[in-house]
Amino acid sequence: MESADREKSPGSTREAAAPVQLLTPDGRRVEHPEYSIDVSPEELRGLYRDMVLARRVDAEGVTLQRQGELALWPSLLGQEAAQVGSARAVLDGDHVFPSYRDHGVALCRGVDPLALLAMFRGVSNGGWDPEDHGFHLYTLVIGSQTLHATGYAMGMAKDGAHGAAVVYFGDGATSQGDVSEAFNFAAVYDAPVVFFCQNNQWAISEPTEKQSRVPLYRRADGFGLPGVRVDGNDVLACLAVTRAAMQRARCGQGPTLVEAFTYRMGAHTTSDDPTRYRDSAEVAHWAAKDPIARLRTHLLDTAHADQAFLDEVDHTADQAGQRLRALVRSMPAPDPHAIFDHVYADGHSLVDEERAQFARYEASFAETGGN
Amino acid sequence: MESADREKSPGSTREAAAPVQLLTPDGRRVEHPEYSIDVSPEELRGLYRDMVLARRVDAEGVTLQRQGELALWPSLLGQEAAQVGSARAVLDGDHVFPSYRDHGVALCRGVDPLALLAMFRGVSNGGWDPEDHGFHLYTLVIGSQTLHATGYAMGMAKDGAHGAAVVYFGDGATSQGDVSEAFNFAAVYDAPVVFFCQNNQWAISEPTEKQSRVPLYRRADGFGLPGVRVDGNDVLACLAVTRAAMQRARCGQGPTLVEAFTYRMGAHTTSDDPTRYRDSAEVAHWAAKDPIARLRTHLLDTAHADQAFLDEVDHTADQAGQRLRALVRSMPAPDPHAIFDHVYADGHSLVDEERAQFARYEASFAETGGN
Amino acid sequence: MTLLTTAPADLAPALVPPPATRTLTLGKAVNTALRDAMAADPKVLVMGEDVGRLGGVFRITDGLYEEFGPERVMDTPLAESGIVGTAIGLALRGYRPVVEIQFDGFVFPGYDQIVTQLAKMHARSLGKVRVPVVIRIPYGGGIGAVEHHSESPEALFAHVAGLKVVSPSDAQDAYWMLRQAIEGDDPVIYFEPKRRYYEQGDLDTTRPTRPLHGARVLRQGTDATLLGYGPTVKTCLAAARVAEEEDGRSLEVIDLRSVSPLDFASVAASVRRTRRLVVVHEAPVFFGAGAEIAARVTEHCFHHLEAPVLRVGGYHAPYPPSRLEEDYLPGLDRVLHAVDHVMSF
Amino acid sequence: MTLLTTAPADLAPALVPPPATRTLTLGKAVNTALRDAMAADPKVLVMGEDVGRLGGVFRITDGLYEEFGPERVMDTPLAESGIVGTAIGLALRGYRPVVEIQFDGFVFPGYDQIVTQLAKMHARSLGKVRVPVVIRIPYGGGIGAVEHHSESPEALFAHVAGLKVVSPSDAQDAYWMLRQAIEGDDPVIYFEPKRRYYEQGDLDTTRPTRPLHGARVLRQGTDATLLGYGPTVKTCLAAARVAEEEDGRSLEVIDLRSVSPLDFASVAASVRRTRRLVVVHEAPVFFGAGAEIAARVTEHCFHHLEAPVLRVGGYHAPYPPSRLEEDYLPGLDRVLHAVDHVMSF
Ligand SMILES: Cc1ncc(C[n+]2csc(CCOP(=O)(O)OP(=O)(O)O)c2C)c(N)n1
Ligand SMILES: Cc1ncc(C[n+]2csc(CCOP(=O)(O)OP(=O)(O)O)c2C)c(N)n1
Ligand SMILES: [Mg+2]
Ligand SMILES: [Mg+2]
Fold first, then answer.
1. Which residues touch B338 (CB under 8 Å, ≥6 apart)?
2. In chain B, what are the domains?
3. Which ligand has the minimum distance to the alpha carbon of residue B175?
4. Quick check: CB of A61 below 6 Å from ligand 1?
5. Mean of pLDDT over chain B
6. Is D70's Cβ below 8 Å from some Cβ in A?
7. Contact predicate C167/C198, CB 8 Å
8. Which residues on neighbouring strands pair with residue B256, listed in sequence order?
9. Which pLDDT score, from 0 to 100, does residue A368 have?
10. φ and ψ at residue C282, rounded to 5 degrees
């Protein structure tokens, strides 16, 4: 069963529009009546570098999990264009609200990948400062960050700031009441927020048609915001569409829903076994639309890059990956007393009491030498 | 500010379609390309009788509250056509999920109005058997009944029953995540359910544009179900549109959202003071669209009824109202031990224990004569 | 969190009324606190259903919309998860949203955002992020309301780390505890005893009386301690008076004020003196605040107790229709009954 | 609810293994219970996220989709409120939905439907309506998972009248308690100790061993009682063994099994014998089940207690990142520490 076909199944009441595309799967540059984009060769190379790095860091996550260094890793494989393209539309003064698979976005924002790996190692539940890179913490409760982004955007508007929020979530997330409420709040308050839905076709084992009867970008219709479907494996289209949506938001023209039509090439997470629920033919079909290969072909065809560049990019990414691996392996275990840190900003007597109890309890072992 | 105009405010991204109308405010019968209806003079008179009775019972609720006999009463004044028209599209084998203002629907289903009054007297929290009249309990947590109706309808489909569920909710309710989730579940499972939204323009003090940027029937678009706006003060249009939607559902053609565009003529409840937030001009504007006057004019103009009939209907309704008043006034206080009844179907040792404790405690006063 | 929360320690009932006091209702004190907080800090926002032109169904936000306008007093769509979730976002942007939940029974659609997001975000960020959202909930029964309008769900919040839970019992506390909650950087669930909205009390707005999370001894006694918070404080005081008049008993009365954190030191100090404790709250006894207090007091004052800690509260049943609420609620007689019982050990 | 719930009273550990037993994991016992319940009653449905072809993230619904098809094993949209809310509707239509919540921390979007609708509908209808929905929640920590995947929220359900809350600790109970929960007419929150899914145990499917809501004495002792449920039962048993071997202490161990209702009679009977009680659960101690048990035991066994009831459980902090969970969870050492403490009074 082919995913593109699924959108036209009898269960769908309406056809999906063709996604916005600026780069065909075989690397040809095409024009779109509404979304044009002017990217320099240097920018193109930058996008390529971002995607390769994202894939390499992601692969490192998978490997480290296999080696027992991480508890879990949710791979972004296949979603590099959606993440990098959209993330490169984010400017200083904007603010990103990610889900849990958005490592590519995190990298583009300058978040240290080690922080992501620490999280999936079980060392922290996040821990970076969202204000440092305009990149909020990962959110694991599906969809709830869409409301945070909307509220944050409402605040930006109140401040009179010329920025926008962008929030990432999946196809499955669109079913959550919170996401509908976020669409509605954003529409009612005309909040400067872009809803960036990575429709990677699967929510763990459930294909999109179990989540929705209509193509997801149409969800926006019901709330009065524009909805647009973009080829999520086309980094240029993702950049162009997100850039336009962010610009609209920054200029007071309100929220937009962007559905990036892409594919989760790997398992849901390292704990998942997708052979239980999906065909290898489907995966193969999408492999042919690989977002990195597409840009690589384009770069080579247009001579905007040569093999040496590609090799250098691979090499750099690989070095970054190896550096990460070493850092993760030598990451110290957290201090047990950290359990009691930061539960409250202004303190809480019970936490203080339990922290002291815990310290005494730990100390009792030190004394007796027991454990 | 006129409500119909509000729909065209700059905040709305799209114009609303003209609502389906079969009877003009001045009582003329008009045709609609999609919704035709054949109603006998007798049926017309029946609808009139239902509406007058609903208004009379409702007025009794308001009066009894003023007299201290009820704790609260949410008046349906102005919504008689929406409620009676839609309720008369419900057949045996269908199932209704009401909100808390749907006394007219309850009456049409044959629910004893005394049960409604008992609830707002503080004697019970409901208490009728939904299976008796295919009419579920009132639900006060806004929007949550839309999911019950959807689940019930999913069950009807599983049973292979030729019935449909219909659920009532307000304009404010559309903002709740539950209602969006219900639209989505209904669409995904193609459940035989009709979502009947009474847009009475206000959610307590908040006008509809604070809830939604688009006309509410458009919400359906985003979930892949048909949405239709009907003149909610036109009992024939409400009947025709709901009948068609119910029939679609019963025949396996899935869910529909019906938005009945009407007006809450009274306060939100007897506790509310609408002068704090809305103009009397708006109320006057809508008074001219009175649903009962409209049908009365039509009946008289077409000679389907005469003054004697109207008088008899008023008289009968009045008698029913007076009977109710007497019954409410003589309604016995509930037995305090009822606190412990029906907490569980299969019992619970703590409830038994507390019931026994309570009985001993009560008995201790009887013994000592204290209180 | 500087000025207001570093207030002097519990002063016990002030003997002389402070100079700049005025008399107003508890509800009006909440309203005044909101107005003063908004005037003091432009980042303070008020949001919720009908809080604008209507001034809220209890009129607690009365006049704020007129004074501060729609950008700071926001009528929201009817969606509690949306309200709390966007309040979190606003807080992340540097605002201090004060959310009104219309009635106790309607907080649950927003419960997920409160429990999984609001409560944990500070810890999740290792302290980088602060989410100073205050959630005001008119709670409790006794006003003859319909279903879902009379509940006391405080235990469902107190169990959750990351939240603070408080409830004032008079106008002075209603004002200052809200000011302190708004000024603090932690999420606070602020439970307003709705059936006490119309009780008159003195308010001195010159300075806070005591820390936000300190309990307060309202009446000293020697035979047993009665502990209440929010709406049951008045009941406890009445019971103490009756017990004194009718049975010559000397009961100490504590207003707990804060359910999380508990000012356990004050409670324990009282119990060590009186050796007996009765906890009174409207919430169901089963898994209620009384359980935690009883367990903790017993653990720490085991050898001081002459009797087990007794609990008076709601039954393990849905809040009943209002014609039965007087039988359900922990009223004067039930408290006195428990006092008799605790003295009988 | 006739056949299954009128099972013989608690039999204490059976001395001879019953005839038709087999050995399987706790997880497989849950799976078997679902299959048998579905086979026995065509109205039983299974619904949730990924319960179909995948068989659930823990494979607890493995094979059911293949055996019963998509009409009875329903992969739902990703929306817990929608799942619970439609399950209520299905129950009203005569079905018996068994809902799977994927992880403990994800039940909260469905909390409103559980607390305001599922729990109250029977009472609201004065008994006319029955809503036999079972909500299965894999809960607790110890599996090295990320945030929201290791929590123990049982107190947040036990406080709510209208719900029953249970948790099995071995294969036999996992099977029968689920069968009984499904057969009963009340909503049941069925907490599955996920870190015990792979523990082997004996299962006899010929007849239920004991009533759904009865506690079970797993080990008799004289010095103190250890009480656990779900995942901590194994910890308690281990602690009892170590305490015997190392300190010659004789500890009684009770598996509570049901958190609401509590089989208080059994607990009290044990405490009257041993005069000391330690309650162990993974949930935070503050406002946890231990508080209710301690308060109740103290009230009813005041003069029998040699020491206060002690509680061992989670701290008042968000469940920590998994590298710290061994420090957070009530493990063997912490239980033994509490035993030492309770014996020192
Ligand atoms: C509220 C909630 N329910 C369930 C889960 C468990 N869960 C984690 S990921 C996932 C699927 C998400 O699918 P989608 O939104 O498409 O994002 P993707 O994983 O494909 O990026 C589920 C059900 C969760 N994290 N939160
Ligand atoms: C979840 C929830 N939040 C808040 C309320 C309080 N409340 C009762 S009625 C109402 C307004 C409902 O408006 P609408 O849906 O338009 O229905 P109407 O009253 O106009 O019939 C509100 C906010 C509630 N009942 N439930
Ligand atoms: Mg997905
Ligand atoms: Mg309305």
1. C320, C324
2. 3-330 (3.40.50.970), 336-367 (no CATH)
3. 2
4. no
5. 94
6. no
7. no
8. B194
9. 59
10. -80, -30
Judge if the beta carbon of residue B95 lies within 6 A of ligand 2.
no
Q: Is A272 in the pocket of ligand 1 (CB under 6 A)?
A: no
- DSSP structural state of residue D115: I
CA of A5 to the centre of ligand 3 (A): 17
Q: Do D287 and C290 touch (CB under 8 A)?
A: no
pLDDT given for residue D207 in this prediction: 87
Q: Would the pLDDT of A1 be above 50?
A: no
C149 counts as catalytic: yes
Which ipTM score applies to this complex? Answer: 0.96
What sections of D137-252 are H helices per DSSP? 155-158, 171-183, 232-247
pLDDT for the residue numbered D19: 61
Rounded CA gap, B264 and B274, in Å?
10
Task: Give the gap in angstroms from C-alpha C156 to the nearest C-alpha of chain D.
Answer: 6
Q: What is the DSSP string of A149-200?
A: HHHHHHHHHHHT-S--EEEEEETGGGGSHHHHHHHHHHHHHT--EEEEEEE-
pLDDT at position D15: 53
Residue of chain C whose alpha carbon sits nearest to that of B124: C321
Identify from D3, D41, D93, D159 which residue to disrupt to test chain B contact, counting B C-beta atoms within 10 A and taking the largest count.
D93
Is residue B199 within 8 Å of residue B260, measured between CB atoms? yes
pLDDT per residue as tens digits for the range D178-191:
999 999 999 999 99
Residues C41-56: what's their mean pLDDT?
Answer: 98
B277 is known as an active-site residue: yes
CA of A310 from ligand 3 middle (Å) equals 30
D130 shares contact with chain A (CB less than 8 Å): no
B77-131 tens-digit pLDDT: 999 999 999 999 999 999 999 999 999 999 999 999 999 999 999 999 999 999 9
Ligand 4 centroid to residue B262 C-alpha, Å = 9
Stretch C139-162: mean pLDDT: 98
Give me the residue label for tokens 């609420």: C325
How far apart (Å, rounded) are the C-alpha atoms in residues D206 and A20? 61
Catalytic status, residue A264: yes
Mutate to test the interface with C, among D103, D107, D287, D341 (most CBs of C within 10 A): D287
A144: nearest CB among C93, C116, C125: C116
* C134 Cβ neighbours under 8 A, 6+ residues apart: C96, C97, C98, C99, C178, C181, C182, C187, C188, C190
Question: Is A256 within 8 Å of A197 (Cβ atoms)?
Answer: no
Closest atom of ligand 2 to B142 CA is 26
- CATH 3.40.50.11540 describes domain D216-343: no
Neighbours of A300 (CB within 10 A): 15
Handedness of CA B194, B198, B201, B205 (dihedral sign): negative
CB distance A103 to ligand 1 below 6 Å: no
What is the per-residue DSSP string for C200-231?
EEEEE-SS--S-TT--EEEE--SSEEEEE-TT
- Indicate the class that CATH gives domain D22-204: alpha beta
Burial-class residue A36 by CB neighbours within 10 Å (0-12, 13-18, 19+): exposed
Q: How far is C286 from D296, CA to CA, in rounded Å?
A: 9
- Is C216-343 the same fold as C22-204? yes
Residue ranges per domain, chain C? 22-204, 216-343
Residue B14 to chain A, least CA–CA distance (Å): 8
Identify the residue whose C-alpha is closest to ligand 2 atom 21. B170
Chain C residue at shortest CA distance from A161: C93
Q: What is the pLDDT of residue C15?
A: 53
Helix (H) or strand (E) holding C135: strand C134-139
Q: How far apart are CA A90 and CA B133, in angstroms?
A: 57
Our answer on whether the CB atom of A65 is closer than 6 Å to any ligand 1 atom is: no
Q: What is the mean pLDDT of residues A254-267?
A: 98
Which residue ranges in chain D fall short of pLDDT 70? Answer: 1-19
pLDDT tier at B365, thresholds 50, 70, 90: confident
Q: What is the pLDDT of residue C21?
A: 87
